Amino acid sequence: MQTADFDYPLPEELIAQEAVERGDSRMLVVERQRGEVHHQGIRDLPQWLKPGDLLLLNDTRVIAARLEARRTTGRRFEIFLLDDEGGGRWKGLVRPTSRAHPGEELELSDGGSVRLERILGEGIWDLVFDPPMDVDRLDRIGATPLPPYIQRPEGPSPEDRERYQTVYATEPGAIAAPTAGLHFDQAQLGAVEAAGIEIARLTLHVGIGTFRPVSVESVADHRMHSERFCFNEETAAAVNMAIGEGRRIVCVGTTSARALEGALAHGGDRVEAGWNSTDIFITPGYQFRGVGALLTNFHLPKSTLLMMACALAGRECMLEVYAEAVRERYRFFSYGDAMLIV
What we know:
Blueprint: E1 26-31, E2 36-41, H1 45-48, E3 54-58, E4 60-62, E5 66-70, E6 76-86, E7 89-95, E8 105-108, E9 113-121, E10 124-130, H2 135-141, H3 158-163, E11 171-174, H4 186-194, E12 198-204, H5 208-211, E13 227-231, H6 233-244, E14 249-252, H7 254-266, E15 274-278, E16 291-297, H8 304-313, H9 315-327, E17 338-341
Helix pairs in contact: 8-9
């Protein structure tokens, strides 16, 4: 498979710049077996689920991962934090990385500093913060890590900090939102439960592996970065019971799907409770172990997320669906509309 096989034309004006109110998004439903599509709203989701389904949410919380740092000469750099290594050490991207020097210290807006210890490749650095950087400090001096296609010349707004977060986000550590969950408000979750749908939560801290572009010609040459995930005892038991009883698991977002498939691959088709990590790369031809349906957004051309959707529904089907979404003026990407593959 070639990366170009997952390209599609998208008018720039369909890239959503602002989120609509939670619960107001449109939802394009894809029935794989019938080969049919339906134009609905996200509040119609319960009618596409059935009692006994297990809805799997990712409760990761986005951290304010973008920092501004500068030299004493005034030169500015952007630090994009990726992984907390503990003890004040992080891995992160430094921009412009070509201007940065190993061993130099940069000043932060609150008077602290960051040392650019060494470059690891692909623009990623080992960073040491003084004093140590934690989530509370990031909330004070960091910015919401909106994707670059959401244009904010003046930087992310206070509204972005609230809206680029699911209403059930509790576990800080993600550098991008699990965007399929952004559509839900509490009333929507209540309606799902009232329809007899079981809801369970896992945690996958969305990292660079989820959104890094595929820059190679052959899909097989792309290397996925590893991401950490956790199933607590209750969710692991719920998933294993659903699989054992032949009930459908509906994943909210590609991150939930990736965590589920990674856990089942690691555990021999059973989910083990606790923290683990996965670098699983799901492309057409992959045999899903647990995902029975997927609620997701419309993804970037040639992205690993689009490839996962194609693995579930078929590449030709999915590209036809995307063409339909363009014709019907759906809103694309993180702040855009939803798609349900059943």
